[in-house]
Amino acid sequence: MIKEEHLLVDDVVAALTEPIDGAREPGGLRAQMERAAEEFDRRTAEAFGKALVDSLCEDPGDVRRLEALLILGLAHPHILGMYKVSLAAEGRRLCVLLENRGEEERARGLMELLAQHAPEDRGIQQELASMMRRCGEVDELIARCLARADEEVKKGRPMDAIPWLQEILLHDQSRRDVARMIRDLRYQEIETTQRRSRLTRGAVFVLVLAAAIFGVVARERGISSRYAALPSAGESDVGAMRARLTGLDELIDGNKVWLGMMNAVGERSDLRQRIDKLEAEQAERDRKLEQLAYQRQAMAEAARLKALDLVNRAEYEGALFQFQRALELSAPDWERRERISANVVAIQELLDQRK
After folding, report:
1. pTM exceeds cut of 0.70
2. What is the DSSP letter of 173?
3. Which of 44, 95, 100, 333 could form a disulfide with 40 if both were Cys (CB 3.0 to 4.6 A apart)?
4. Cα 249-255-257 angle, rounded to 5 deg
5. 3-class SS of residue 20
C-alpha cells in the first residue's frame, strides 16, 4: 500500500516537473507552470495538491515534491490557499535546498519566477538580489535594481525606489549618478511633503473659514427669526409695547454682537421714549381726573351742608334740590350717599303731603 502511494506521488511529481523538450534549464520552470495551468483542471489540481501536501508532511525536505507543489501552486494558486502554504516562504526554502544540491541556475530561475509573481514582496526581491550577487551577476543586478527603482517612481512611490538605488551603491560605489538620484528623490519627497503640508494648512484654513461663515450666517438667521417673532406693539398700547421691549432686552442682552443689533437698539430706545411719553400723558390724565373728582366731592359736601341749613330754616324745596345735587356730584362710594338718599325720600314725601 505504501509503495502504491509513493508511486502515485511520484507520478504526480513526474507530471508536474517533467522537462519540456527533455531539458531542465531554469526557464523551463515557467513552461512547466504554464503546462500545469493548461493541462490540469481544478479537480485534478486539487487531487495532485493533496497527494503532494500529504507526502511533504512525511518528508518536508524532498526537493522534487516541494518543487512540484510550487509549480502546481503557481499554476493554480487556490491549491496553496487550501492548505495555508506560503508561496514566498516555501519558495525561498526550495531555493536554499536547490543551491545546497548545486542547482544554482534552477534556484535562480525559481526565485525570478517568484519575484515576477510577487513583485511587492520585498523579501523575495532582496533574496533574488542576494542570489544574483553571489553568482557574480553584478551588472544584471544593477540593471534590475534600476528598473525596479524606475517602476516605483512611476507608481508615485519615490521613497520605495531609494532602497533599490542603495542596493546598487552596495555593489558599485562609483555610481555617482545613482547617489545623485537618491539625493534628488529625497529632496523631491521633502518638497512634496512641504507642499502637501501647505495644501493641508490651506484646506484646513478654508474649512475653518467656511465653518465660521456658516456659523455666523446660521447665528444671524436664528437671531433674525427671533427678532421677527417678537410680539407687535400698537401706537398707544403700552402693554404690548412693554412685552416687545422685554423681548428686545432679552435679545440684545443674550447676543452681544450681531448685524441687526443697531436696529434693535434703536427700536428699544424708541419704545422706551414712547412708553415714557404715554405713561406721562396717562399720569397727567389721572391727575386731572383725580383733581376733578376732588372738586366734585367738595361741591357735593358743600351742597349737603347747604341742604341741611335749608332744612333747619324749613325751606324744604331748596333743601331737596341741594341734596339731589350732592348725589349727582358725589362719588358712588361716598359714605354719606345713603343718608342723603334717605333725606331726599323724606323731603319728597313731606312736600307731597303738603300738596
Report:
1. no
2. T
3. 44
4. 115
5. strand
